[in-house]
Specification:
The complex is a heterodimer of chains A (253) and B (216).
Chain A lengths: L1 H9 L2 H10 L12 H11 L13 E4 L2 E4 L2 E4 L16 H4 L5 E4 L1 H9 L6 H19 L7 H22 L13 H26 L6 H22 L19
Antiparallel strand pairs in A: 1-2, 3-4
Helix pairs in contact in A: 1-3, 2-3, 7-8, 8-9
Chain B lengths: L7 H9 L3 E6 L4 E6 L5 E6 L6 H7 L7 E4 L8 H9 L3 E3 L1 H9 L9 H11 L4 E6 L4 E6 L2 E9 L3 E2 L1 H10 L5 E4 L5 E2 L1 H9 L3 E4 H7 L6
Parallel strand pairs in B: 3-4, 4-5, 8-10, 9-11, 10-12
Antiparallel strand pairs in B: 1-2, 2-3, 6-7, 7-8
Helix pairs in contact in B: 6-7
Classes of the chains: A mainly alpha (253), B alpha/beta (216).
Chain lengths: 253, 216
């Protein structure tokens, strides 16, 4: 998903025009999206159909052929008599980013041919939810209170603790010099522990102001631990560095 | 009956142990405990540190002891005492061994967790003819047509120069320190310290390989 986002952001003007020629967009003068809007639509989709019941990848790679199947669909019709038409909208409003959603050909056809089953509110919520998912990947939320931060933080803390208790160096497997468990532990470090550590760090950093003074000290230790842990497991540092501060499990409680 | 100070920590630890149903003082140094799953266990506590051989031989005559626990960490328990007590089906160890033993359902036989796999693997090694526990961490390995090897293992996760120096303090006659923790990281400083002490510092797989060679 991330490479597809990168592709969207790295598109040149030449590629914009290629896209606009290839994309099956509704072309209705000013009701059609301009090149910037198209780029923004592709970026916002992350390369996936924005119908949550579909989410099919919009970029295909078959043998040596690379192409996309994305279609820019109007939420309120580009014309006065199309699906979900709103005759009060101007052409510019109809062609605006806010009135467009990126879908696969099947979903585009469905929302236009079964208009009553796909009202504007539903399609708008698809787009908003899709945007939230991408935001959650990269942006971390600022929460209004400690309880909300705690709720967001807990699953990552619990998962890391569970992995450590099951596969980590302090289980009874430490007494078996030939255990295979060490391979699983190493894999889990890369696939779960380190990404979770970074998410935990970003969450706390984004909600730093809700920490108590003592918790801020714990956070500093946690940052050192996270960096030392990555140095050990990603950069082959031999020393363990700062130990995991267990108090981090009680933050925002 | 006044409890001996050495019973305080084991009693508390037993009461917190997940497999321990009851634990109470039977004599000033003797704790009687029942497992949730398994046979009852009797534990005699001593200070440890410098082991009093005569005290141990006297305790060995008793029929109501399953495990003698040395409270002081890093107590060196000579192999002769381990063997003598084993002939009486009595184990001797530290707090770590007590916790491990209570997890089992039976009291005998008992081999400390950190040695179980090592002893089993060494006994199966094709050049090893005899194994002897010189103390609770040091092992003498007799080899076919080759000289004996005295090894000490370090169970540390991060093997540092301190791990090496602690091992050498425990066993100045050891020829090899084996880093037995499967997740181990051995620091450069650890290798340097081992080099100065003229002792080999090897991971477990390297150690098994080197046993095949005329090393000393």
């Amino acid at each position: 998903m991330i490479w597809q986002l990168e592709i969207c952001f790295l598109l040149t003007n030449l590629q914009y025009s290629k896209l606009s020629k290839k994309a099956m967009a509704c072309t209705r003068g000013k009701a059609s999206p301009n090149s910037h809007t198209k780029l923004r639509l592709f970026a916002a989709s992350g390369g996936y159909c924005q119908n949550p019941d579909c989410n099919i990848a919009l970029f295909e790679n078959i043998d040596e052929n690379e192409f996309h199947i994305a279609e820019m669909a109007h939420i309120f019709s580009a014309s006065d008599d199309g699906p979900r038409a709103d005759d009060k909208m101007t052409e510019e409003e109809r062609g605006h980013f806010d009135n467009l959603i990126l879908l696969c050909p099947t979903c585009h056809t469905k929302i236009d041919k079964a208009e009553s089953s796909y009202p504007d509110k539903k399609i708008i919520s698809w787009k908003q939810d899709h945007t939230s998912k991408i935001d959650d990947l990269f942006n971390v939320k600022t929460f209004p209170d400690r309880q909300s931060v705690r709720k967001a933080l807990e699953p990552f803390l619990l998962e890391n603790r569970s992995i450590f208790n099951k596969y980590g160096p302090e289980t009874d497997e430490q007494f078996n010099p030939e255990t295979h468990m060490v391979n699983i532990w190493m894999r889990k470090i890369l696939s779960n522990i380190i990404p979770n550590n970074r998410t935990i760090f970003r969450l706390i950093k984004q909600n730093y102001d809700l920490l108590t003074p003592n918790e801020k000290d714990v956070f500093v230790q946690y940052k050192q631990h996270m960096e030392d842990f990555e140095a050990k497991h990603l950069a082959s540092a031999l020393e363990s560095g700062e130990r995991f501060p267990v108090e981090i499990n009680d933050l925002y409680k | 009956m006044k409890p001996h100070w050495t019973t305080e920590i084991p009693l508390k630890a037993l009461k917190d142990h997940t497999n321990c149903e009851t634990a109470f003082l039977k004599e000033s140094n003797l704790i009687s405990a029942t497992r949730k799953s398994g046979e009852p266990i009797s534990i005699y506590t001593i200070a440890g540190g410098d082991i009093d051989h005569s005290e141990i031989y006297e305790l060995g005559k008793r029929k109501d002891i399953d495990l003698i626990v040395c409270i002081k960490r890093d107590t060196v328990i000579p192999g002769s005492i381990i063997d003598h007590l084993a002939s009486k089906r009595i184990s001797i160890g530290t707090m770590k061994d007590l916790m491990s033993m209570v997890t089992q359902s039976k009291n005998w036989p008992f081999v400390p967790k950190e040695l179980q796999f090592i002893l089993q693997a060494l006994a199966q090694h094709k050049v090893v003819t005899e194994l002897r526990r010189l103390d609770n961490r040091k092992i003498l390995i007799e080899r076919r047509n080759m000289k004996d090897v005295i090894m000490i293992h370090t169970p540390d996760y991060e093997v540092t120069s301190k791990s090496v120096r602690d091992a050498m303090e425990w066993a100045p006659d050891a020829m090899v320190i084996v880093a037995s923790h499967p997740y181990r990281k051995i620091t450069g400083e650890a290798y340097t310290s081992a080099g100065f002490a003229e002792v080999d510092l090897l991971s477990w797989p390297d150690f098994l390989g080197k046993l095949n060679s005329k090393w000393n």
